Amino acid sequence: EAGVAQSPRYKIIEKRQSVAFWCNPISGHATLYWYQQILGQGPKLLIQFQNNGVVDDSQLPKDRFSAERLKGVDSTLKIQPAKLEDSAVYLCASSLTFWGSGENIQYFGAGTRLSVL
Amino acid sequence: AQTVTQSQPEMSVQEAETVTLSCTYDTSESDYYLFWYKQPPSRQMILVIRQEAYKQQNATENRFSVNFQKAAKSFSLKISDSQLGDAAMYFCASAGANNLFFGTGTRLTVIP
Predict the structure, then answer these.
(1) Which residues of chain A neighbour B33 with C-beta distances below 8 Å?
(2) What is the pLDDT of residues B14-44, one digit of tens each?
(3) DSSP assignment, residue B59?
């Protein structure tokens, strides 16, 4: 079974530029998550999708971050414009069902390391 | 709200020895799960072990086991017969009705 795919692996941009990350979850997984992991910290949830609807985006800085999951499969996360403090690893995860079912396990991709100069 | 605290930024262990990583948590949820994830340099978070809070029996997965003390809100990970491949960042996480909350991680070094 293929895992969660993310691209690119690395991205270097200058502040005020825009950037987009792509995620393809495990086939059949209804729920998709984007996390931000700043160096030296644990991952922090940015947004959670159930199929193509947003379940939780309370931690997403909506003035510069946006995300979509068209057709309930692939997802993109965009930052525009980027700031220095956005330098981090962006992890995508997927799970079979909605988290509230209790038995859910999240499977993670390898992430995209973003450096904002 | 949920918080997870890992008080050991770094730990080391001799190959074939046993090491215990500490984790404490706080949650207002009555039903929740606890996890240990491993993050090697490849960055992919890999689930090591999971504990359901309503189960008193400690979870085990081969060389990995937990000591779950619900009253003390403690959830430590024991790695037996440590191997070089166990070297990684280890994150403790809790989950209630919605999403995962992670600690700051413990970097484990395995000494040959």
Answers:
(1) 102
(2) 999 999 999 999 988 888 889 999 999 888 8
(3) P
